[in-house]
Design a protein that fits this description.
This protein is an alpha/beta fold. 31% of the residues lie in helices and 24% in strands. The mean pLDDT is 96. The structure holds 5'-O-[(S)-ethoxy(hydroxy)phosphoryl]adenosine.
């Protein structure tokens, strides 16, 4: 019996049991029956979490684009692969069929080759949500180049550090981008980023907003004329199963961002299989994930997972509030969207607008609703269920990470009974564990601990680009023989999981992971700042917002605090991007520290969350007097 499409709860349990009893046999069957390979593997799995090293389908040869494009041509050539909905609702949507997508990817791949890109080279993609973004990703994969997409909301400094970290040869961008009523000068940001990187050989520029931009001779090329001249066929490069497919940066609690490296075969198998089941995709469905492709959700569940299943995937360029807060529902009605996948922060922002925008539209096409990126609060869950799903469409609360490549804990719609705020049960093949702080597994139900995974799954990231030691230290050192997620979770009386949030210094703001260290580094660059500490506090739309405690040099005598606040947020915008701006900044006489000089963030967090009655033991502090002062002057 094929286990590719799970349709009942009973079946979920059967398949789950099979997948953990004999993972090799299970994944071998899935891989064998549902994908095209140029050569089969010699070995399904080898792994050692101590090194750490994980290899799936070793010895196999494939190209992921043959699975996402070529194989669909005979049966679905004229089906829409990508349905592009522009920022401006008056601009026509674009239906790109599998045949057209194939040709556009091949042309793009030929342009990359002509510009000297070879298998294994890194290509940095800094594009808005336009078709060229998906096409350039697939074009890289076609020729075996490793794509590194950088979210187009990151600043020039953030972009340049990512280009440098992976030593990219080329940057792909556009003249600019639309964001609601605004335009953004993307090419200007790229130019600034490249000031420090003379080594970049070429910059390909897609035309989107027809702005007047600087084109540096011998380095910058308009994409359109190059594509026009390129052949619309391009042989797919033969890739080893474990060859890197892409790098995607994610924030860590310390230091620079981590370039998570994903493999070719395992990533393909797992994202395709999860897509099929978590969204219960059927052939005529129109699936829409509102994420940006600059994040892992877009990689796995706008591009690779859907296309590997021959799905129609919607790509939306705009924002939920433009031209008004009904835009998402307008798109659902217009394209008869069947699966809708978004983030809790978007749900909260839309819920805040009431139901008036929702009621104008016919949402009856919807079958499955999804959420991802942060814990969803009960109120948002019910609002989504009642107003969008009309209590008929199951909500899949999907927990996973950039590092996991694909969805890990989730209901299977129409099978798993849902429960508000619970991601429910592990997906097929996933073996979670809850650990206590002394490193013991917590068994049984109605318990809470740190979430780990005991056994490898096909799409686990293989390393951090250029820093395997950091990969080991971050994910495999906290607990023996386990992958540590950095999240806390509880397991209820029937074994359902609820993710409670990060247990490290990563703060999730509007679904974006932000490490505290890089933000503090940016603040500390200000000449008036002595030191700073960032913590999160609850926010009704963003989930968390950022609270900065800043100590000034010379106690800030004669300084205008409002101006300083603006300057600090400008520095953060320049170094990271507007997503990392602080909501509150408090100037302090000092920061509470332990005797060894470590900042006691726990205390700062309590103060920011207005829980000063729960500060706990402050007797170990070197400078308890600053705590009183901070509480007195809270903003
Ligand atoms: C959080 C996004 C609660 C979690 C795919 C995780 C969630 C981090 C959920 C990864 C969820 C993601 N419920 N928390 N359904 N989904 N998270 O790398 O803290 O951008 O570790 O990947 O988001 O964020 P990332």
């Amino acid at each position: 019996m094929s286990n590719y499409h799970i349709k009942q709860f009973e079946e979920y349990f059967q398949v789950y049991r099979k997948s953990v009893r004999n993972p090799e046999q299970f994944w071998e069957e899935i891989a064998e029956e549902h994908f095209v390979w140029r050569k089969k593997w010699d070995n399904v799995l080898s792994w050692d979490f101590k090194k750490p090293e994980v290899k799936w389908f070793e010895g196999a040869k494939l190209n992921i684009t043959e699975n996402c494009l070529d194989r669909h041509l005979p049966t679905r050539g004229d089906k829409t692969a990508i349905l592009f909905e522009p920022n401006n609702p008056n601009e026509d949507a674009e239906h790109i069929t599998y045949k057209q997508l194939y040709a556009r990817v091949c042309k793009f791949a030929n342009v990359l080759k002509e510009k000297g890109i070879q298998k294994g080279d890194r290509v940095c993609i800094y594009l808005p949500m336009i078709p060229e973004l998906a096409i350039s990703i697939l074009a890289c994969a076609r020729i075996g180049a490793v794509h590194s997409v950088v979210f187009a909301g990151f600043s020039a400094t953030a972009l340049s550090s990512r280009i440098n970290d992976c030593d990219a040869k080329m940057v792909i961008t556009s003249d600019g981008s639309y964001r609601g009523p605004k335009t953004i000068d993307l090419k200007g940001i790229v130019d600034e980023a490249l000031n420090d990187i003379p080594g970049i050989q070429s910059v390909l520029v897609a035309k989107r907003i027809n702005s007047n931009i600087n084109m540096k001779a011998g380095r910058d090329y308009w994409l359109d004329p190059l594509l026009e001249e390129a052949y619309s066929d391009c042989n797919a490069e033969l890739m080893d199963a474990e060859d890197p497919l892409f790098i995607l940066y994610t924030s860590g609690s310390t230091g620079k961002p981590k370039g998570m490296v994903h493999s070719s075969a395992g990533y393909m198998v797992y994202t395709a299989y999860t897509f099929k089941n978590v969204f219960q995709y059927r052939d005529n469905d129109v699936y829409w994930c509102t994420a940006d492709i600059g994040w892992i959700t877009g990689h796995s569940y706008i591009v690779y997972g859907p296309l590997a299943n021959g799905a129609t995937t919607v790509m939306f360029e705009g924002v939920p509030s433009y031209p008004d807060f009904g835009r998402f529902w307008d798109i659902v009605e217009k394209h008869k969207v069947t699966q809708f996948y978004t983030a809790p922060t978007a749900i909260r922002a839309l819920a805040k607008q009431g139901t008036e925008h929702v009621e104008k539209y016919d949402l009856s096409s919807l079958k499955v609703l999804g959420t991802v990126g942060e814990p969803i609060n009960e109120e948002a869950w019910h609002w989504y269920d009642e107003n969008i799903g009309k209590k008929k469409s199951p909500i899949v609360d999907t927990w996973w990470q950039t590092e996991t490549g694909g969805i890990m804990i989730t209901p299977i719609p129409f099978s798993t009974p849902t429960k508000p705020t619970y991601a429910t049960l592990p997906f097929i093949g996933i073996q979670p564990a809850l650990m206590d702080e002394s490193g013991n597994e917590i068994n049984g139900n109605q318990v809470e601990g740190r979430l780990c995974i005991k056994f490898p799954w096909p799409s686990i990231a293989r390393t951090i680009w250029g820093n395997h030691q950091r990969y080991k230290d971050t994910y495999f050192s906290a607990y023996d023989n386990m992958y540590f997620t950095g999240d806390g979770a509880l397991r209820d009386e029937v074994g359902y999981y609820r993710i409670t949030g990060r247990v490290d210094d990563v703060i999730i703001v509007s679904g974006h992971n932000l490490g505290t260290a890089p933000i503090e580094d940016a603040i500390n660059e200000h000449p008036a700042v002595a030191e700073s500490a960032i913590v999160g506090f609850p926010h009704d739309v963003k989930g968390n917002a950022l609270y900065g405690y800043v100590t000034l040099k010379d106690s800030g005598e004669g300084r205008n605090h409002d101006n300083l606040r603006k300057e600090i947020n400008q520095l953060i915008t320049d170094r990271i991007g507007p997503i990392a701006k602080l909501d509150k900044i408090q100037f302090t006489v000092g920061l509470p520290k332990t005797r060894s000089g470590k900042i006691m963030r726990r205390i700062l967090r309590k103060i920011a969350c207005n829980e000063t009655d729960q500060l706990g033991d402050t007797s170990t502090l070197l400078n308890p007097e600053v705590v009183d002062d901070i509480i007195k002057n809270v903003v």
